[in-house]
Amino acid sequence: MLPTLVRRLAQAAKPQLNAAAANATKLKKVWPPDMKTMSTQQQLHFEKKYKRRVKLATARPQFDKAMQLAQLFTMALVVGYMALFMDWNGVPTPFDPLRENFYGFFGAFTKETKKLELREHHRPPQPESSD
């Protein structure tokens, strides 16, 4: 193993060919084109075509849709939290009627409300006093 390593290190480096020289066929167009030799109309046409091709090549419709849905979901959660649960320190907000309706409806499902209902349900009847 050591003699092979020494022999390979002693060999001269192989000349590397660039990509254009390695290609057997001649290129039809020079890339990138020389913008100085183009007229302004040709430059505009080239830029439009290049932008269109780049846009088509980089299109990711599934990812874009997923990102839009994630943004929509995040914004809905933030606005919902602000409207229903955020403490505004007594400052009147346009969310106050919504918050009152929300807690009025879902307040019946809290533990404190159920405890009060159970106490009232199991409370012995109080004798009526006849004055």
UniProtKB/TrEMBL annotation:
Keywords: Membrane, Transmembrane, Transmembrane helix. The chain crosses the membrane at residues 69-88. This is Uncharacterized protein. It comes from Trichocladium antarcticum. The lineage of its organism: Eukaryota, Fungi, Dikarya, Ascomycota, Pezizomycotina.
